[in-house]
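Problem 12. The chain below contains 151 residues. Write out its predicted structure in token notation.
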Amino acid sequence: MILNRLETSLLGLAAVLLLALMAVTGIDVIGRYLLNAPLSGAFEMTELLLGALVFTALPLVSRNGAHVEVDLVAGVLPRAVNRGLGVFAALVSAGVLCWFAWTLLMLMLGQIHDGARSVSMGVPLAPFAALGAAACLLSALFGLIRGFTHD
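Solution.
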């Protein structure tokens, strides 16, 4: 199924981003404290990699239903009510995530128009906004699927 392949691709991308983040941090620490030569641009690389990692992981969390949930009264409500609340929560979450995606898409278009780049390394920022928008849309889709199919 295409969603399973997509999930596997996201897991792979998240693993690569996490390894890159660890490498940047490790090289910077070793360079800074042992060689007195910190990695140039390490702070900016960390920011960009961490943002990409968070957005890459967001659909995975939605797919697995691993978001934080508070269910103070779920144990005493009838099953049908709990199911209805789950569908309602999925719809609200999907709506908010779609709004985030729209906002990030508009940000990306503005960044493309302005040629926005990171300060010290000059990395284009629009691809990161595009990743965030795509991740929010995918999270909305995964959340809706889970909300309507999970009991």
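Discussion. The longest helix spans residues 79-114. Students who got a different answer should revisit the alignment rule from Section 12.3.
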